[in-house]
Amino acid sequence: MLPKHIRFPIRTIFLLIIFFIILMYCSFLFRNFNVMLSKPRPSILPKLDYGYLSTSNETSERLHPNKILKIMQRIHKANKQQLILNKNKYGPLENDSVVIVIQVHKRINYLKYLVNSLSHAKDIYKVLLVFSHDVYEKEINDFVQAIDFCKVIQIFYPHSLQTHPHTFPGKDPNDCPRNITKDKALIKKCNNALYSDLYGHYREANFTQAKHHWWWKANYVFHELRATRYHTGLMLFLEEDHFVSEDFLHVLMLMQASTENLCAHCNILCLGNYLNEFTAKSYRAKAECSNFDASHNMGLAFNRTTWSLIKNCAQAFCSHDDYNYDWSLLHVSEKCLERKFTVLSIAGPRVFHIGSCGLHQKSKDCESSQLISKIKQVLHLAFHFGQLYPPRLKITESILEVKKKKPNNFQTNGGWRDPRDHQLCLSMTLPLNSEGILNSSYQSNKTGIKIV
Q1: What's the rounded Cα separation, in Å, for the pair 438 and 435?
Q2: Which of the four pLDDT bands, split at 50, 70 and 90, describes residue 60?
Q3: Which of 7, 140, 332, 369 fits a 20 to 30 Å CA distance from 242?
Q4: Count of H helices and E strands in the chain?
Q5: pTM summary value
């Protein structure tokens, strides 16, 4: 047996070794636990069906042509399959259910706010959410495919800048720069030298894409998407930087019912406005019946009958020198229709615009948490004072008063003079193939545009 003065240090050294082993083991477990937490939520879409979840997040400018081709193939496959997520859980789409069509670019932070607000809405399980994308990105796809509170489908705009970075409808290297003079453009012999817009500027692909995308998705959901091509209920159009109240579906249905008796000629419903200041008092059950205006572009809803009027004016929409779809709709209303569009709009907004960054805003800080906090506070007070979920609406203007109004004075914003944009837009009103793209014979023989 070892002497006492030797046993103590040996015992101490042994305990330190044991403590060190335990510490290392705990560190190993902690590192693995963090790795598990950092893994993204698995997609509920089977990879076998689309096969695009491994796509990188590189921008189109950096993508190799082979990668762009693969993205295009996967986009066409997705548009052909038209897989509806959660269909087994929530059943088929009913004809009186609302279809919500969301135009998505790549601002996922805004999209997360929108989806979160949708998830808290009453009766959201009844709707079909259609996400229409013009950027194909794994992070966005994973997020959308993890939605589990209603039926979901993704469609992909097939003529995007991502898939056509250096050819029309993207920016062709031989396209005229925006601010070049027409004389210099003619000397340079750039592609669209003859077609500067109302203000002397040439097309900007990142601006024209938004109008093309809106027109494509509207045509697609009304005519090509199997789940909706015979649907006669309401189509509600939202964008990725919108935010909805919990009673927005209730109010939308109430507005639809009110048109039958109180606003028989209303053919468009609007759930949002651009009020700079709104309070709980704004949420009294009032709605206004008025002529359509470009400001009625937030929370826009209409049915197939109204869409037929719009589609029949495709020439007016597609040739109007304005890169904005809402101002182009106003042009349709003012210059093409025998009877202008009449809108029933809710005084207290149920759809809010939270985007501080977009086509024109270049702010480095695209965080909307402060605005959303204010919106939530106002909605909470409105609920507390019984302003949400109104049992009926009070229409503040009659259709007779609308008739007496002078025609809207509207501006033209330009950016849409290139005949290639006109031709592409018009071609989208013709039957598409099963993949959601133009028939190749039409592309080559009728428009002179080659989009592959």
Answers
A1: 9
A2: very low
A3: 332
A4: 16, 11
A5: 0.80
